[in-house]
Amino acid sequence: MSFPKEFLWGAATSAFQYEGAYLEDGKGWTVADERCKAKRDIQADSSVASDGYHHLEQDVSLMKELGLKSYRFSISWARIYPDGEGTINSEGVAYYKKLIDLLVENHIEPVVTLLHFDIPWALVEKYEGFVSRRCIDLYDNYCRTCFKLFGNKVNYWLTINEQNVMVMMHDMLGLKKDDPQLSKKLVQCDYNMYLASAKAIITCHKMYPNAHIGPCVSYPTFYPETCHPDDVALAYDIQDMMAFAPMETYVYGTINPMVMNKWIKEDTVPNILEEDDSILKEGTADYLGVNWYCTQTVSATSRNGSFNIGIDVDIKKNPYLEYGQWNWSYDPRALKMALKECYVRFKKPIMICENGWSELEELCDGKVHDIKRVQYLHDHIEQMQKALDEGVNLIGYQHWSFVDILSSSQGFDKRYGLIFVDRDNFNIKECQRIKKDSFYYYRNVIENNGL
Ligand code: BG6
User: Fold this and answer.
1) Of 99, 250, 302, 342, whose CB count within 10 A is highest?
2) Which residues line ligand 1 (CB under 6 A)?
3) Domain annotation for the chain: domains and CATH numbers
4) Which stretches of the chain score pLDDT less than 50?
C-alpha cells in the first residue's frame, strides 16, 4: 500500500520556539518565556526565536515551494488572552487569522496546537496554573474563542502538546522545585489537564462536528538494556506509564488503574469531582498526535555510565545504535513498531506530529548539507510506509521542524529545520532563511507522495 492520496505531509513549529515578538502587539508573558529567561545568559531566549512573527508571508511561500499539504503550528494562548482570561487581544487574533488565511489560500491544511508549553504567566501568578480547576475553564474558554475565530478554516486541532512531559518538569507548569507540595501539585495539574483537554474536545465537537481534535503525546520507545527480567519489566512499566496510560485517558476517558494505584500509594490522589468521569468519557480524542524521535534504553540492573535526559531513570547507550550530538539515538526501525503498537492498542487514526533530527549546523558557502537529516527522513518515511502496509491508519507526518527553531532545551545550537535560520544564540542578525538539502529532499518525497 502506498501513502494515501490525502496524506498530510507537513512540517511543524510551536509559538514560543518560532514566533519571537514575545512582548509585541499585546502578547502576554508565558511559562515558556519565563523558562527561557532563566537560561538567557547561556543561550537564546524566546524574544526573537526564529522571528516567524515577522517572516509570515515569506515562510508561507516557502511552505508552498516545499509543497506542504499541512503545517502544524501552535497558537499562543497569551497572544489571544494576554492574561489568560479577560479581554481578547485583537492584534494577536489578526496574526493567526492572517497565517491561517494564507495557509488555506495556498492549500495547506492548518494543524493547530492550542497549548504548546506556554501557559500564560498571569494564570500561574493568580491561580498556580493548572493546579487550580479555574484554569480548566479558562483553557476551555480560550479554546472556544479559537474555535469561534478560526474553526471555519481549521479541520485539525491538537489540545495540549506533551502533557506527559510537562508533568515531569515542574517549571513547565510554573511550579517551584522546592515546593513541599510539588508531587501532589504535579498530579493535580496532570489530572486537570486531562479534564481541560476533554472539555475542549467536547466544545469543539459541539461547534464543529466535522473537525478532528486530539491530544499530542510524547512517545519515545523504551528498550530494556538486557533481557534480565528486571530490565524488561522496567522498560515495560516506563512505556506504559509515560505513553500508554495518558493515551488511554485521552482515547477511552478512563484513568489507568496502575496510575491511580500509584497516586494512592504516593498519597497524591488529586481532587476528583463526580462530574469528571462523564467529562473525560465524553471528551475523547478523534485521533492521536504522537511525537516520536528515538528509542531510549533503560536499566534496572546496572547504574554505571548513565546520562541524564531529565527523566528519573537510568538511561543507557544502546551499543547497536548510533547517537547524535545530544545523545538521541538513531533508530528508524523502532518507529514502525511504535506505530503498530499504538494503533493496535487504541485503534485511532495516528498523526506523527513531531519527528526529526537535530544537529549543530552552520552555513558553508551559503549552503547547509544536512546529509544526516536527509537520511533520517528517508529511513523514517520508509518505516511509515511499512506501517501503512501492515494496516496502521497513519494520516499525516509533521516533520520537526519546518525552519530552525529555538530548541526547548538547547537554545539555537540544536537545529532541527528543513530551512536554516541565520542567527545564533547571541547574534540575531536578520534571521535569513536558507533552504537546506533536506528541504529539496522532502519536497521530492511530497511530490511523489512517498519515497
Ligand atoms: C518535543 C517538543 O518534546 O521535543 C518540542 O514538543 C521540542 O517543543 C522537541 O522542541 C525537541 O526537543 P528539544 O529539547 O531538542 O527542543
Assistant:
1) 250
2) 14, 17, 161-162, 165, 218, 291, 354, 358, 407-409, 414
3) 8-447 (3.20.20.80)
4) 305-311
